[in-house]
Amino acid sequence: MKQFVLLFLLAILPSTLAANQIVKYHYWFNNNYADKEVVEVTPTDTLELDFELPISELPSGFHFLHVMFEDESGKFSAPEASYFLIPHYIPDYENSKIVGYEYWFNDNFAGRQYIQTSEEDTLELDLEFDVSQLTRGLNFINIRYRSSDSLWSVPETNYFVIPIQLDFTVDYKIVGYEYWVNDDFANRQYTEVAETDTLELDFELEVGHLPQGMNLLSKRFKTSDSTWSVAETTYFIVPFEFESNTDYDLIAYEYWFNADFANRQYVEVAATDTLEFDELINIDNLPNGIHLFNYRVRADDNNWSIPITDYFNNTFKYNLVDSSNYVKGIKYWFDGESDKYYIYYHDSLAYELNIEQDIDVDNIIGNRTIFIHAIDSAGYQSLPITFDFTNSFTHTIDANIVTFEIADIGSYQYSWNFGDGNTSTLPNPTHVYKKGGTFDVRLILTRGTPSVKDTLIEQVTITLVTNEILLSQGWNMISTYVVPDEFDIDSIFSEIGDNTVIMKNNAGQIYYPAFGINDIGDWDMKQGYQVFMNQSDTLSILGVQIIPENETINLSAGWNMIAYLRDSPMDIELALATLTDDDNLIIAKDNFGNVYYPAFEINMIGNMLPGQGYQIFIINSDTLIYPEN
Known about the structure:
By secondary structure, the protein is mainly β.
């Protein structure tokens, strides 16, 4: 049997015990206050502890022991903690096998994930991890392995980076830029500028040291939070230098339309110092609209000049004499997808475009540009006109439950950030906010091939309400109909802590502010609590109002202390109908001793009241759902 020898000397007692003698001491391991041991001693002013503790039930590893002293008047000292280690036994490495592993991110050991495997001598991991909840920037993952004798290996740590994303709700400013040529990032040039929303660059670039031909200029911008933009790359040409003492002649030229270099036309000319184009070029095969005309010339040393590009409009044919011509419809497409167009016909001599009526944009979501041609009765099209528009998402709020709606397009990807640390990838999610306030909800919409990302931002405001609970001197049984903005019991009772003696939950855990004891931890909105006050006071709980019909309270067989989640009174027979329908409820009691005894049709309680807690006894485990407010 494992034993632990403790030598503990209390030299100076706390001031609260100074006038009385020690008659008892209490001790417990780790956080297991509920199983504490109480030992009576001969009354004494000082107490030296020298005893063996049974630790056979404790696992190997690090533990702590709490000791608290009690005097003749029943007052307690502050608990004192001592730490001790139970050593691991030496494993049988020769016959040990790997039977599982667990991993956690950063310092979140409490949130580790355990994966069981078949027995292996070696284990190679090839896994995908969900990192959507991690902060952007440098993170690390820790992995350790479990052996068949239940021992753990030393954790292995690997680092990785989640790229930073700007918060577009913040008013960032540009404070500088830097640029470099080709791959020479090490010699980049940085220039600081006055804070500005936009920056137009106009500077001379020294290219004397660069190779002739195609080069790359890369530039990026620095924001006021010291974050850098993605680098932008521009191509430019350093012309080839001709020998200054050589008299070159032009002997040919070639031209092509748009990007159709493969079908360029080559034309030889007599050698000349200058060349004037004087040629009719057939453009009948080009569609109506704007085109690019590219040409370059060839010298007698067989080198080509840099291409020169001009824009031209292959104008639409029209008949000024024929008055029967009229607009009969429109052709339109979105963004640069001119191959995915729609045509809407409207036979009328006088046609006025109505975008909302003639163009269906309900399923076109994100930040988009629409291109529109008018089509006449001869089939010819006008030059395109463009409109920019944003089709964002909508939302509806029911207390703290928000439903988001946007067109569900199967090929799109939806990445929601609700502004409170929670996310979703559903097209139309419903989210429950645990706190009040105004939240910037961001939807990153990925569409098309190659993918295009749109960021849509809307604000959602969740209104807070205050539940004021009147507490009388002595015992009270309370609950609340709000989700507290702060769950910590110390925070909730901070305004009335001096008047609060003790608080208990149904499990027997206590909150004892005078001695700094808080076994309860956080407020559970589905539980009732017993509170003893040394004088009357008011407990104010700020939070989001609960929708009672959406909350399920799980109850165990026997006694339960429950919350009343409605914000208005209701007869207990109606409020607890989900428990009485199958005769599962034996009795319910309020803080004043009134009872509801359905089997004998006794109802002394009448209405259940907001802010009050209730004790109930049921035969079998069950669930309670209150009617709506």
